[in-house]
Structure formats: structure tokens, C-alpha cells
Write a structure and sequence with these properties.
The complex is a heterodimer of chains A (about 500) and B (about 160).
Chain A (H helix, E strand, L loop, with lengths): L8 H11 L8 H20 L18 E7 L3 H13 L8 E5 L15 E2 L6 H15 L1 H5 L16 E5 L4 H14 L3 E4 L1 H7 L10 E5 L4 E2 L2 H14 L3 E4 L1 E13 L5 E13 L6 E11 L5 H7 L17 E12 L10 E3 L4 E6 L4 E6 L19 H11 L7 E13 L6 E4 L6 E5 L5 H18 L13 H4 L11
Parallel strand pairs in A: 1-2, 1-11, 2-8, 4-13, 11-18
Antiparallel strand pairs in A: 3-7, 4-6, 5-6, 9-10, 10-11, 12-15, 12-16, 13-14, 14-15, 17-18
Chain B lengths: L1 H10 L21 E2 L26 E2 L21 E3 L21 E3 L8 H5 L10 E3 L8 H4 L9 E3 L3
Parallel strand pairs in B: 1-2, 1-3, 3-4, 4-5, 5-6
Protein name (chain A): FAD-dependent oxidoreductase domain-containing protein 1
Cofactor (chain A): FAD
GO cellular component, one term (chain A): mitochondrial inner membrane
Chain lengths: ~500, ~160
């Protein structure tokens, strides 16, 4: 497809006939006529509605007028989906993908504010497989995401592993999870308190009955590097990037009647309205498929389609149960803390910490109780909350009794209030909206595998490598949560 | 891919030998060193055979000599497990460790000068955690702090390494 405004129609046809190779050995008149016909056909194709050509100058920061797939949200999940869509398309320029991100500085994006950990220690086999596939992707990341003549991708992956601690009450859950993880192929080992003390002499094993340590493919990495690697590669493959906000959709409605006589509205998105930042200018992008990868704001995007705004006891009355939840991370400095080989430790009290850099700094956090959830209208840090974390840290690691909080930040989880697991798949009533959201803190570590699964769903019609049908919207309609049985 | 790899090696020139990986039962006390060359490489690196041969003075080591001939003596010791492996200056990588998985008695491993050894390779060495005593990772340009953090899983090891 040709794009961009051109100065004049007549000049264009001459330029094209000059470039066209002259194969015909007929008379002069015939050759020239053939070229003229070809030029005319091209001109006509450009003038037809499907093409990008327009005689007027337009603002180049606007998105294109037409795109096959619009991905709402430019976080790591959105760009991963964009990359895999281009990776899997059968022919060159087979799909036109547009990624719409509303904040070019990524100041509130969950991706870059994440602690960046990846682990296989889940209780659901789907989550374990997602993590393993993503770790495989990251191990061979330069085979996937390297761009010619550009620097290779360096994720700064620390292979320190996750260490989960279990008390008496929850040790049985840890044992069941261990067998699920081993069956799925994750390399995890169980440790008794004595083995734990031998391995980590800086730990206080008081109250710990069992510990679970990931031997391979676990650790943490730099989320910004992964995001940029996906973005750079996807743009090099032809994905369009637009900084703007999706403010609404134009859709057609098809009302059908069920066997009982109830009316059900099936909607089909025709245009996605993308508004430019700090401006009233907007572009309706005609699209075939919309992917909702907006993270913490996915609920709002779904509301724009009327998902959840119908009568209470119908399918259209079920909203997308994703909302932002604020989580704090504190950077602490402890001169005598555990050294280079500190794993990402998660205690049964809910407190976690990991080493950050080589200067004796650590980052720590804790998931708050339901009643204590902080306000989500901003990203301000509540420093008082650290007083809840410190006693547990000091109890578990005696060296942390004298530490100093250096700084802190806050980020949003795209929290699935229904069962804290991702929602992947189509919506039953909106025929062309796909979801890839609600991962509740695991989106970053699963993003390569989620991108591949969504691309398979969209381009191949179904999951091919990993079956994520357990994460479909159906469980929300039938009210059957699939819960992750963690020890915290 | 493994199958085609074996077929390619079978069809290759007569001077190409490869080692069989002995089964791992309880080990004898004899010190065996097997210089395992071709088996550890990806399909792409099957083309660059000549750079892997390294001279070692001791006669206890099984190595290929100057002309690429590899003695079949190691076949006499088929049921023992390997204790020392030196794959320095080869193109061994993460996938190549598959071949060493069964060596439960491995005490020394040297991957010095291997260009493809990176942090993921180091993170996989946990399978030797009970027995590995010496690990040489000098001159491996792709190792970083993240990989060294993985080495905590090896309990008895002295590690020699320099950039």
C-alpha cells in the first residue's frame, strides 16, 4: 500500500511510468499505452476508499485512517501482541497493526514500575507453562527481537531464583504446588528448615516449615528493556505506533432473540476514536479487530463498548472485572545484608524482597489486606505502610533490623477482582474485541507467551501452542473462578 | 533435530569421532577425562570442527590428536561416570548441556574461552550442585553479574574466573 500525500496526480503517473521496466518489445505506441494503462489503474486504486492516499496534508501524528488490528495499550503485553502478530502473518504486510498508547512518557504504566520478577512457582498449570514459555523466549531473545545494525537486547536477567517460605498452616499447599510444578516441567526444589539455613545462613528459620526454591528460569530482569525490545522490533516489522487515547468506539448492533424470548445485542466495532494528547483533534480508525491490552485501565476501555452497562442479570450487565490497584515498592539500604546470591524471597506473611544492584540495596514490598487497599487516583507513596513491612523483614532476616529506606515508588496492578488471573480471549457479545488483561501482577513475566497466544487466537482462530481457554471470559459469566492457590 | 544431528555425524567424514555418553551408575574411582567435542554443538557449529581440538599433556585424558583421530579407548570404560570435563574454547551453549545431564559424578568443569557460554548456561549448572568442585569460567565474554548470582546453587565449588 502506498501512503502519504502526493503533490499532484499528473506528476505521479509520469514518475511511475519512468520507473516501470519496459518488457514489451512491441511498437512504441503499444508500450507507452501499456504503461499508461498501468499508471491509470494504480491511480484509480489509490483513489478508491481502501487506500491511504489523500490529496490533503494531514497531521502526521494522527494514526492511519484504517488498520486491521488496533491494540489499545502500549505496555509490554500490547507490544508483545503486536510483535507476534507481525511475526505470524503469512504474507508480507498481511495485517496492519496499530498500537495506541496514551502516555508517551510511560509515567504511570505498570510495565516499567514493576519489580520485574519471573517465576514458575504457581499452582495453575497454565501459569506455569506461560512462565516457562516466556523464560524460553527471554533466553533466546536475540533470535527473536534483534534488529539489524542495532545493539543486541540485554535484559540484565538475574538468575537468582524465587524462594517461597511456608508456615505450618500452608505447608500442604506448598507441597501440592510443588508436585504440580514438577509435573509441568518446572525445576523447583523443596527445602527443609535445616537445608534452608545451610543455603541461606542469613535467614531466621523461625516459623518456617518448608521452603520452595526455583532452580532455573527464575529471577528478575529489566522490564523497560523488554518493552523497548518488543517495541523496536515490532516497529521495524511495520507496526504503526500512535500516541493518543482511545476515547470511544463506533459500533453496529445486531439484536437477536434467544429461545426464551430475551433480546441480546451483538455489537461489532467499526471505528475506534483516537484522540490526540492535549488536543481536541481525533481520528476515527476503521478497524476489524480491537485488542484491549490497556492494563489497569482496561475496565474503562471495556465500558466504552457498553460492557457492563446492560441490565444487571444479563451477560451485557457483567463488567470486565479489572481495576487498578496500587502497590508500593520501597528501596532500602542495608550494609550487612545478604549478598549477591540473595534470591527473590517471598515470606508467608506476604512480605517480599530482592536484591537491587550491587551496593547493598534491596527492594521490598507487601500486598495489603483487602480493607487497606490504597486510593488509586494517583501514584503517591504511603511511607507509613512500610511500618507494616519492616517487622516481618527484620524477623525473617535479622540483618534487616538496621536498614534505611532510600526511596520508594508505586505502580498499578491490573487487578482482576474476580480471581486474580488473566482474562484472555474474545468477549461473547462484542464480536471483535479481544482481551489480554487482568494479570494482577503477572503480566510482565507472562507477556511473551501471552503475545504469542493472542496472535494465534487472532490469526489462526484458536490456541496452538498453549491452551489458555481456561482464562476466557466465559468463567466470569458462569461465575467459576480459577484461583491461584498461593501461600500468601 | 537431535536425530538429524546424529545422522549427519554418522555420514560425516571417517575422521570424525564422537563420544558416547556413558550411563550413570555408581562411579569407579579412576580419573577419566573425556574431551567431548562434536556432541556438544548445535547444528550450525557442526561446520567448524577444527577449532575445538586442544592439546593436553597428560595421557589420562581422552582427546583427539593432531590429525583429528579420536581413540576408541574410552569405550573400554563404558560404565564409569565422567569426573572431569574440559570443553574450553568450544562453542558449547545451553542446549549442549543436555549431553552432560547424566553425569552425576562430575567434579571439574572447564568452559574457559567459550564464546557462547552465557548466564543461562550458568543457571543450568545446578544439576551438578552436589558434586562439582571446580568450575573454570575464565575468558567467557557473555557472562555477567546475573549469571554469577546463579552460581550460589553450587555448594562445594571453588570458582576460577576472570574476564
Amino acid at each position: 500500500t502506498s501512503s502519504g500525500a502526493c503533490p499532484g496526480v499528473v506528476g505521479r503517473s509520469y514518475r511511475h511510468s519512468a520507473l516501470r521496466p519496459n518488457r514489451n518489445n512491441n511498437t512504441f505506441l503499444n508500450t507507452d499505452l501499456e504503461n499508461q494503462f498501468k499508471a491509470f489503474r494504480e491511480k484509480a486504486a489509490d483513489a478508491m476508499p481502501g487506500s491511504d492516499w489523500t490529496p490533503f496534508e494531514k497531521n502526521s501524528s494522527l494514526p492511519p485512517e484504517r488498520a486491521d488490528i488496533v491494540i489499545v495499550g502500549g505496555g509490554v503485553v500490547g507490544w508483545s501482541i503486536a510483535y507476534w502478530l507481525k511475526q505470524k502473518e503469512m504474507i508480507r504486510d498481511g495485517v496492519r497493526v496499530l498500537v495506541v498508547e496514551r502516555d508517551p512518557t510511560y509515567s504511570q504504566a505498570s510495565t516499567v514500575l514493576s519489580a520485574g520478577g519471573i517465576r514458575q512457582q504457581f499452582s495453575l498449570p497454565e501459569n506455569i507453562h506461560l512462565s516457562m514459555a516466556s523464560a524460553d523466549f527471554m533466553r533466546n531473545i536475540n533470535e527473536h527481537l534483534s534488529v539489524l545494525n542495532d545493539d543486541p537486547v540485554d535484559l540484565q536477567f538475574n538468575h537468582s531464583g524465587y524462594l517461597f517460605l511456608a508456615s505450618e498452616k500452608v505447608a500442604h499447599i506448598m507441597e501440592e504446588n510443588y508436585s504440580t510444578q514438577r509435573y509441568a516441567g518446572a525445576k523447583v526444589s523443596l527445602l527443609s528448615p535445616t537445608q534452608l539455613k545451610e543455603k541461606c545462613p542469613w535467614i531466621n528459620t523461625d516459623g518456617v516449615v518448608l521452603a520452595s526454591y526455583g532452580l532455573e528460569n527464575e529471577g528478575w530482569f529489566d522490564p523497560w528493556m523488554l518493552l523497548n525490545a518488543f517495541r523496536r522490533k515490532a516497529i521495524s516489522m511495520g507496526v504503526y505506533q500512535c500516541f493518543g487515547e482511545v476515547t470511544g468506539f463506533s459500533y453496529t448492533t445486531n439484536t437477536m432473540t434467544t429461545a426464551e424470548g430475551d433480546k441480546v445485542d451483538f455489537r461489532r466495532i467499526k471505528y475506534a476514536n483516537v484522540q490526540m494528547p492535549n488536543s481536541l483533534e481525533y481520528q476515527p480508525v476503521e478497524c476489524a479487530i480491537v485488542v484491549n491490552a490497556a492494563g489497569a485501565l482496561s475496565g474503562k476501555v471495556a465500558e466504552m463498548m457498553g460492557i457492563g452497562l446492560g441490565p444487571k442479570d444479563t451477560i451485557s450487565g457483567i463488567p470486565l472485572p479489572v481495576e487498578p490497584r496500587k502497590r508500593f515498592i520501597y528501596v532500602v539500604h542495608c550494609p550487612n545484608g545478604p549478598g549477591l546470591d540473595t534470591p527473590f524471597l517471598v515470606d508467608y506473611s506476604g512480605v517480599y524482597f530482592r536484591r537491587e544492584g550491587l551496593g547493598g540495596n534491596y527492594i521490598a514490598g507487601m500486598s495489603p489486606e483487602e480493607e487497606e487497599e490504597p486510593e488509586t487516583n494517583n501514584l503517591e507513596v504511603d511511607h507509613q505502610f512500610f511500618q507494616n513491612i519492616w517487622p516481618h523483614l527484620a524477623h525473617r532476616v535479622p540483618a534487616f533490623e538496621c536498614l534505611k529506606v532510600k526511596s520508594a515508588w508505586a505502580g498499578f496492578y491490573d487487578y482482576n477482582t474476580f480471581d486474580q488471573n488473566g482474562i484472555v480471549g474474545m468477549h461473547p457479545l462484542v464480536n471483535n474485541m479481544f482481551f489480554a488483561t487482568g494479570f494482577s501482577g503477572h503480566g510482565l513475566q507472562h507477556s511473551p507467551a501471552i503475545g504469542r497466544a493472542m496472535a494465534e487466537l487472532i490469526l489462526d482462530g484458536g490456541f496452538k501452542t498453549l491452551d489458555l481457554s481456561a482464562f476466557s471470559f466465559k468463567r466470569i459469566m458462569t461465575k467459576e473462578p480459577i484461583l491461584e492457590r498461593n501461600i500468601v | 533435530m537431535r536425530q538429524s544431528c546424529r545422522q549427519v555425524t554418522l555420514l560425516a567424514a571417517a575422521s570424525r569421532y564422537w563420544s558416547s555418553s556413558p550411563v550413570a551408575p555408581p562411579s569407579k574411582q579412576s580419573r577419566l577425562l573425556l574431551f567431548l567435542s562434536q556432541r556438544f554443538h548445535d547444528i550450525e557449529t557442526l561446520l567448524s570442527w577444527s577449532s575445538w581440538f586442544k592439546n593436553r599433556g597428560q595421557s589420562e585424558w581422552f582427546r583427539s590428536d593432531r590429525r583429528g583421530k579420536f581413540s576408541w579407548d574410552f569405550m573400554n570404560h563404558q560404565d564409569t561416570s565422567i569426573e572431569e570435563v574440559d570443553v574450553g574454547n568450544t562453542l558449547i551453549n545451553y542446549t549442549g548441556l543436555e549431553n552432560l545431564v547424566k553425569q552425576r559424578g562430575l567434579r571439574t568443569l572447564s568452559v574457559s574461552g567459550c564464546a557462547e557460554v552465557d548466564d543461562w548456561f550458568l543457571s543450568r549448572l545446578y544439576m551438578f550442585q552436589d558434586t562439582l568442585e571446580e568450575l573454570d569460567i575464565s575468558n567467557c565474554p557473555r557472562i555477567s553479574v546475573g549469571g554469577l548470582a546463579a552460581l550460589q546453587k553450587l555448594r562445594y565449588t571453588d570458582q576460577h574466573g576472570r574476564k
